[in-house]
Every structure is written in C-alpha cells, then in structure tokens.
Amino acid sequence: MFYRFFTEIGIIHQLGRAVIEARFPSDITTTHFGVLGHLMRRPDGQTPLDLATAFQVPKTTMTHMIKVLVRHGYVEVTPHPEDGRSKLVRTTEAGKAFISESMVAMAPEFGTLVDRIGADAVEALLPGLARIRETMDAMRDP
Amino acid sequence: MFYRFFTEIGIIHQLGRAVIEARFPSDITTTHFGVLGHLMRRPDGQTPLDLATAFQVPKTTMTHMIKVLVRHGYVEVTPHPEDGRSKLVRTTEAGKAFISESMVAMAPEFGTLVDRIGADAVEALLPGLARIRETMDAMRDP
DNA sequence: CTTGTATGGTGCGATATCGTATTATATATG
DNA sequence: CATATATAATACGATATCGCACCATACAAG
Fold this sequence. Notes:
Number of strands of chain A: 2
Largest sheet of chain A: 2 strands, antiparallel
Largest interface: A-B, 49 and 50 residues
Mean pLDDT of chain A: 90
Strand content of chain A: 5-15%
Shape of chain A: globular
Strand order of the largest sheet of chain A: 1-2
Order of helices and strands of chain A: HHHHEEHH
Helix content of chain A: 55-70%
Low-confidence stretches of chain A: none
Radius of gyration of chain A: 17 Å
Oligomer: homodimer
C-alpha cells in the first residue's frame, strides 16, 4: 500500500522532471528549479546547508547544484556576515528572470493539466502530502 | 500551486529514496526496487521497453538498471519468443526473496509512519495521485 | 590561551541517469 | 524479392548524485 504510494510518487516525479527538463538548459534539473524559486521568496539569502535541508539532498549535491546555478549567473554566493565558515546564496536578476520566463513557458502544460484534472483536485492533495512530508522529515534525525 | 505540488512530490520522493536506499545494497535504487515488485506481479515477464514505459524512465536507463539486477541475480533475461529484437525480463527466486526480506525490513519504518499519519490518510491520496499520473502520462505522446 | 569537539563547506571518486548514435530485427511498400 | 521505414535494445559519452575524507572556522571546557 505504501508501496503503491511511493510508486505513484516516483512516477509523477519522473514525469514532472521530463516535462520541465526538456524545456530548459540541459544541466538545469527540477531541483535547481526548486532552489531558485525557494530563494526568490527569501531575499536575505540562505546558506547552502539551509538549501540542502530544505530539499533533502546531501550537502555535496547542493554544493554542486549551486556551482551550476552560479555558472548560469542565476545566483550569487557571498561569505556569511556572521559565520566565517558559511556562505549566503541569493538569486540574481537573471535568476528571477529565468524563473519568470520558465513559469510562462510551462503555463500551457499546466493549463491542460488543470483542464483535465481540475485545480481543486490538485489542491485537495496538498495538505495530505505536506503532512506526510513533515512526518517523514521528523522521523529522520530521531 | 502546481509548483507547490511538484515540490512536495520531489521532497517526498527524496525522503523515500533516502530511507530505502540506506537499508539495501548500495547500487539498488528505489526504481530497481519498484521494477522488481512490478515483475513479481507479472510472472510472464516484461520487455525492457514495457518496464521503461511503466516507470517513465528512458530506455537506456532501464537497460542499465536491468544489468544491475542481473548482476545481483534478482532477474533473468531471455530472448523474446515472438520478437527477435526484444527480450523478456523475469524475477528469479532470489529476486522474490529479496523483495520479501526488504518488505519485512521496512515494516517498522512504515509502521511509525502509519502510527503518526494513519493508513487511511495515505490511502485517501492514492486515487488523486493515480489520476494525475494517468493524465500526465496521456499528455506525453499526444 | 590551548585543546577538543561540533559544524559548514568542498575535493574526489564511484556510479546512476539519460541523450545521441548505432545495430539488429520486423514490417510495409513497390 | 528489394528497399524503406519503424522499432527494440545497446554502446558510448557527458553530467548529476552522493558517500567519504578533509579543511576551516566556531564554540566550549579546562
């Protein structure tokens, strides 16, 4: 039963990936995309570790993803003002522009999805998913 | 909003991955796991392409995953009896045993999840997820 | 101040993923 | 039958992911 659940999750994730990654620069993944969106809503910036925890990927993966985003000019990295070990990652104007354009580019895709399923059907799933995410998250550290 | 949806999906997938992959041979991923389960319910076997479509991964990825499963002795590959270009993939006894043991090993993990969330809360999400999966799937080929 | 420990980040290496091009077989068409 | 086109699988190469080991800085204890 959980088996079914995780299978569905896996396939939907895969399908979403395929749709998004086909439309954008080849080395930008859905997680990169998510990171950019996350940062846009946090103008003060986040540390790499914040981001790794938020997206549940290992620190090293985040290091690499940030490097890619910097190469594209979508984020900038500065030393952390209060902690010499750390850094702060922020979106650039180019990064914000990229997200906006991407949203527009994906709109038709999402449009048909809404037409066929209904926005409220998706909306209805969100609380349940969030709850599961939070619970699984809490189960991690003990 | 879809953005939220796909973010949740992404993180839950990530968390599920982490839990499962930490418990099993290092080169077995959640998708390998899913493929084995899928094959167990189809004793006549499936072609690599069937599997790739079912799990929404590129053919090349499936080729590689099958190779890994063969190396572990969890599946066997035979020529397709009716199509010389194709093959048939089936689980071995070892593969079935591995799945059973894995299910047992994961039971406590799932147990706490059930305790905290409730099985019916997960169950309630399944139809919605399946519906989205099917719709996105149908949107692919046109 | 010195030492020990915790914490943030990264280099490196192994491997999974996936796009492109290639090979083999099947099927359709003249 | 010959040729063209479609389809199944794979080899190869590029790159993303992630575990491990390491370095730098912070913080705590003596």
